[in-house]
Amino acid sequence: MVEHAQKLGIDPDRIAVGGDSAGAGMAAGMVLHNRDAKGPAIALQLLIYPMLDNLHNTPSGPLRTTLFGTDKPRLMLGKCI
Predict the structure, then answer these.
(1) Is there a contact between 17 and 7 (Cβ–Cβ < 8 Å)?
(2) What is the maximum alpha-carbon separation in the chain?
(3) Is residue 54 within 8 Å of residue 29, measured between CB atoms?
(4) pLDDT tens, residue by residue, 32-46
(5) Closest-CA residue to 47 (of 14, 78, 23)
(6) Which of 42, 56, 70, 77 has the smallest count of CB within 10 Å of its CB?
(7) Which letter, b or e, does each residue of 24-63 get, where b requires 16 or more Cβ atoms within 10 Å of its Cβ?
(8) Backbone angles phi, psi at 37, to 5 degrees
(9) Is the pTM of this model over 0.85?
(10) For residue range 49-66, what is the model confidence (pLDDT) as tens digits?
């Protein structure tokens, strides 16, 4: 986008990324990759309920084994990611 900012009619100093759920995790990963690769600065990052930790290592984690369609095999799969 920055390379084609003029053609797109955008301000290259005001690039924003965002997403929700899995898309939010992907947006966060892209911003980190962009930072590490010394890419163009990202002015804004909007993450809506991102999955940023697949370990479920929280006090409420064991309580979620049957809530909202989660079950033990799915939680185990999340640990393998």
Answers:
(1) no
(2) 51
(3) no
(4) 999 999 999 999 999
(5) 23
(6) 77
(7) bbebbeebeeeeeeeeeeeeebebeebeeeeeeeeeeeee
(8) -85, 5
(9) no
(10) 887 776 667 777 666 665
Write down how long the chain is: 81
Helices (H), 1-81: 5-8, 22-36, 72-80
Is 43 within 8 Å of 17 (Cβ atoms)? no
Place of tokens 């690039």: 15
| Tokens of residue 26, six digits | 């992907």
Instruction: Please give the structure tokens belonging to residue 13.
Output: 């100093």
Please report, for the chain, the start and end positions of each structural domain, with discontinuous segments joined by +.
1-50, 54-81
